[in-house]
Amino acid sequence: MGELVDFFVRSRNFILFVLLEVLCFYFIINTSNYWGATYFNTSNRYAAQVLAWSNAANQYANLRQVNADLALENQRLNARLTQLLQSKPAAPAEYQADSAFADRFKFVVAKVVNNTTQFANNYITIDKGTDDGIRPGMGVISPTGVVGKVKICNRRFSVITSILHSEYLVSSQLVKAREIGTAKWDGVDPHLIKLNDISLTKPVSKGDSVVTSDRNSTFPPGILVGRVRTIGVQPNRVFHDLTLDLATNFSSLSFVYVVENRLQAEQDQLEKQVETEK
């Protein structure tokens, strides 16, 4: 306490000077319209800037919750869009999809907790497991495109075989040519993927979209796989050599959607029955 008193005693002249300056400043502002308006505008400008910085800091701190909310909204929109597309497929006018068939895909949002892209066979771990209805074989997509397929699960986590895997294949279709092929990663660049088995007789151009076909039960048809980047010819073969820009950026993957095909078990059971009767 004594040191504080000594400080004020030693600094009494400076403190008196500051107080008089503040008093003078107060009288100038209150007795002059010009300086009063100037002070008001300046203080408002700086106050607005400080408020903007404060809001920006708060928004940044809330980004995690905002991203989670957006992921939930995308989940709902994905489910609705898929239902509408399946109820009105590109088919003859007299065809009408069964309501159960049109509503067979269900989406569960999950957060990525681990992800690799540097290996020949890459995997992704998410924070949802069997307690959330996840099971092996389910497809996984991102807000922009295909991600992979669930490999194993426990109660709270699941491991996904990434599309960046040397043995993983995705039945895919060129949108314009309507030709079905197989998307497969060549193990080189995590931003590129190959599209195989597209006949040279089919016209292909750069920028064409490639989506999941309707001949697999893992993904809803129409999910973007990528866009054609380069077009070549496979040596001694009758197929295009197509390289695609992957739709999903795996280096910044945060949230994914696990796709449940509610009718997949029925389809698989029937197809296996046919195989055993051959």
Automatic annotation (TrEMBL):
Gene3D superfamilies recorded for this chain? Rod shape-determining protein MreC, domain 1, Rod shape-determining protein MreC, domain 2
| GO BP annotations listed | regulation of cell shape
Q: Does the record carry Repeat as a key word?
A: no
Q: Which domain of life is it from?
A: Bacteria
What residue ranges are annotated as transmembrane? 12-29
> What residue ranges carry the coiled-coil annotation?
60-87
Q: InterPro entries of this UniProt entry? A: Cell/Rod_1 (IPR042177), Cell/Rod_MreC_2 (IPR042175), MreC (IPR007221), MreC_beta-barrel_core (IPR055342)
The reply on keyword Coiled coil is yes
Q: Where is the Rod shape-determining protein MreC beta-barrel core domain?
A: 112-260
Entry's Gene Ontology cellular component terms: plasma membrane
Keyword list (alphabetical) reads: Cell shape, Coiled coil, Membrane, Transmembrane, Transmembrane helix
Family assignment from sequence similarity: Belongs to the MreC family.
Q: What is this protein called?
A: Cell shape-determining protein MreC
Q: Which organism is it from?
A: Spirosoma foliorum
